[in-house]
Amino acid sequence: MPSIDAARRRLRLADSHISVLGLLVEEDAVPDELDGALAELRVAGIVGDGGSITGDLYPLVSTLMEPRVIVRTEITGPQGVLESGAVIGNDFVFVHEGWPGETESEYLPVEAPLLVPALARSVDLHDDILEGADLTEVITSTTGELDALMVRMESGQDDADAETVARETGAPERLVEVLAQLNCMWRMTVVWKNAHVENPEPTFTGLAVWDCGLEGYWVRELPAEPVREGDVTLESPLRVRRTNAKELWQAIADLLPDGSELG
Length: 263
Known about the structure:
By secondary structure, this protein is α+β, with helices and mostly antiparallel strands.
């Protein structure tokens, strides 16, 4: 169910609720398939009987209607894929996070200088467990070998040693060792339009990271983000490099456009 925390300006909304709010703002009819979402918004006191939206939603709705920058994060872990991100508008910045098994995401406002810490927290960026890790260490393989290794891991066949798994999947033994400690994989993509270019195409930046527990963080350099549909085949080269929390913090900041690009 949708809900609102007026004291802390937090909201819990599903995509269907967002769709309804957008239609109401545009004064368009709400289709039958969204009647349930509209009813839930009314029960929560977010939408009145006449279709009026509570004033507490103005900052979020205005930001979602005219976003300048959109951040999308996909976190793949033991409980499936979880989405989070951020939306930057003319006057407000909102971050949102999902919860495993729930359709609603929590939306809350942040000040622009606190966006990078909020994004870092959403992927649980934390201090490295290993001190003095070799940040030049690189593992190369192919996406096909990675897929074979992931399929084997997901099947629960985790009793064999790394050498045996590497031989059976064709993946490098070091890749097997690193992924044996995998907590989650996450991809962060940022999109915006450059205000100084006439009829600009959207600009995309992206970052893909493996959080491998005792083996630390690894950034996927190939295939390079953002990956578009059809870009990757089983023969595509895979390259991951060890990194740390400090580097990732800066990498997240570098994904975002600066003020000069937005006008």
